[in-house]
Amino acid sequence: MTIYQFLVLFLLWVCLPHFCSPEIMFRRTSVPQKRILGARVPRSDGKILHRQKRGWMWNQFFLLEEYTGSDYQYVGKLHSDQDKGDGSLKYILSGDGAGTLFIIDEKTGDIHATRRIDREEKAFYTLRAQAINRRTLRPVEPESEFVIKIHDINDNEPTFPEEIYTASVPEMSVVGTSVVQVTATDADDPSYGNSARVIYSILQGQPYFSVEPETGIIRTALPNMNRENREQYQVVIQAKDMGGQMGGLSGTTTVNITLTDVNDNPPRFLQNTIHLRVLESSPVGTAIGSVKATDADTGKNAEVEYRIIDGDGTDMFDIITEKDTQEGIITVKKPLDYESRRLYTLKVEAENTHVDPRFYYLGPFKDTTIVKISVEDVDEPPIFSRSSYLFEVHEDIEVGTIIGTVMARDPDSASSPIRFSLDRHTDLDRIFNIHSGNGSLYTSKPLDRELSQWHNLTVIAAEINNPKEMTRVAVFVRILDVNDNAPQFAVFYDTFVCENARPGQLIQTISAVDKDDPLGGQKFFFSLAAVNPNFTVQDNEDNTARILTRKNGFNRHEISTYLLPVVISDNDYPIQSSTGTLTIRVCACDSQGNMQSCSAEALLLPAGLSTGALIAILLCIIILLVIVVLFAALKRQRKKEPLILSKEDIRD
User: What GO CC annotations are associated with the protein (predicted)?
Assistant: First the structure.
């Protein structure tokens, strides 16, 4: 292919109509653009191609926002090549704001804006234009759509979403640590000039903080800012558009920054030596005083753990850390004795529980102090030889038997005599008593394990010279079992036997209970008190037994009820036994052994009454009523007769 042929083909491709949707671009001019009517391009076959005409032509429509002139703002002009200038055409405008915001001169096609436009409210308007014949009202050109774009001016200052921000950053942070990012928005067009390009600067808060101009990220600007010296900072940030140049609009916001605590301070005791006093009578667990180390930090960074690390009282005292007050509470670990030792020395250490490895160089994060504890003498109450006593005794002992002895002494050097007594609130039934001189506990009433297996008593030991000094001790008395109760039926048994029963048929399974509690467990034996021709008992050897029949058939008309004595024995020493009597009724049963009736009189009652029987019963009732009426009439007549009657009347 030659260069000439290639050029011819290219021109043909350009001149041929292409079916596409062109995008119309506009630019503002003062004079309407001329329409190109056509261009002839020769074809290789000798025919001439004509370029298709465009029916419309207008200025490119761009409108400046915030117009302040007194007249309507000129937008542009619409014109059709069908317009001969004779006024036969009429231009019509429709779409966004047509007729209100935008008006068109129907003769000339000039478009004006009727009021000031704010781009931030709407950035562009889409309208449609059409030219019609005034006489026929028919369109002479197809409807065409165009856009009026609003040009932006810098009429909006940057704004922050919050007037006041709150942020925090750890104290002792390195320079450049990010605190918070603030972002301002500008309603102007970011794609047109620098109206919406925001630059950040710091107006207040230097030299402690800085802000990145482009991002608005606030960072620390000084090293080792200490919360203990200053905790709160107020930073004012300015956002300015036009890239921060002169003439740009600006807005500000306030950022309140708090330095949060880190563990950069060790605990410190205010005193090197602390003196405490404690009574020798203080019980174990008694708090005798507290120590406290101060820490300039807060929260968990100020939490301290106390411990006793040295001294001659490590076995006698303990220390507990009180989380709420951050104090070390010293308590009694073992009973104290003034006569044995009067002064103890402890070395107490306080250490932070949450140490930050970054600040090890500021340590050590602990401190120590000396605690001296003086023991003071008191008149102590008697001391029992045991903290509690347990006595075991069988329930069958005689009244007055000694079951055990409690012992107590006066720990003071005076060694006052002791008097023992029993707290009657723990022995309301007065089953026990105690010798006041030697502490021997004995019974004053018989014991019964089945009524009460345990007795929890309290014995009081008091000094004779000072009765107010007394001590109590718990005494537990366990009553041991003796086989003194016979076994009995576990429940009441309602037993029956069918008239058609066969020999060896099971009619009842029985069991027993015993109030005693032998060490080897309960074991019962069942037998008959005497040989019975009708029934027998079979021991199952599992504390139950079966009642079986011995004969074939029973007759409830002859005997309706049988009494069967059963002997129940236990296996303990001495052996206890009892006789329980089973009441066995004879009943009529169906073929499957289900009870139907157990009353002998039920057979004598008829199943129903006939008509004759009912008539006879009614006649009897009538006769009885007549007799009653006659008797009443005769009695009334006799009351009217004289008192003197003849012998014949009396006889009658």
Answer: adherens junction; catenin complex
